[in-house]
Amino acid sequence: MGGEQRRKELIALAYSIIAEKGFEGLRVRDVASRAGINGATLHYYFPTKEAMVQAVVEHLTEQFSTLREQNSELTDPLAMLRQEFADVTYRMEKFPELFIVAAELELRSLRDSSIAVILKEMYQAWQDYLAALLQNGVTQKVFRSDLDVQTTAIAITTLIRGLGSQLGSEKGDQISRIATQVEQWIMA
């Protein structure tokens, strides 16, 4: 197995352990054991636990952005915003572990500044994407001219993040209702 493939395998194992046991259950030796390697080999790929967590967050970021990249042909700001909500609904239904891992890392970030920095970058990229989308909608006169795009982007991500940490099977319906409400707030 090549080095990059092995690294991806180790990241996936760490990710799955966080999804199963929470951040507190993530042990470097457990990742090594599941991978069938020793600790020294694992440290070749990740010299510290923080480096492994950074890789898990990068993996999480990649998973969240994958659908957006697949829908890059969309140019209409309202259609793009609707697609963002549809993508979140899809992820919550098909990949609930994304939200479990994100929530675990968010909780840990309250006590660990290194994780807080990593997550802040991830959420900032999402907010920047939404702010640009919203600004494009304002420029095209699709969204209100007085819309505070930065605050609205923060509000949208906060709503979705909060919903992601709730239990229940009705999340898709809740996201749909939130999307409708957001449209009412921002439409010209």
TrEMBL record:
Classification via InterPro entries: BetI_C, Homeodomain-like_sf, HTH-type_TetR-like_transc_reg, HTH_TetR, Tet_transcr_reg_TetR-rel_C_sf
Domain of life according to the entry: Bacteria
Positions of the HTH tetR-type domain: 4-64
Record bears the keyword Transcription regulation: yes
Residue ranges of the annotated DNA-binding region, renumbered to this chain: 27-46
GO MF, one example: DNA-binding transcription factor activity
Key words, A-Z: DNA-binding, Repressor, Transcription, Transcription regulation
This protein's name: HTH tetR-type domain-containing protein
Organism: Reticulibacter mediterranei
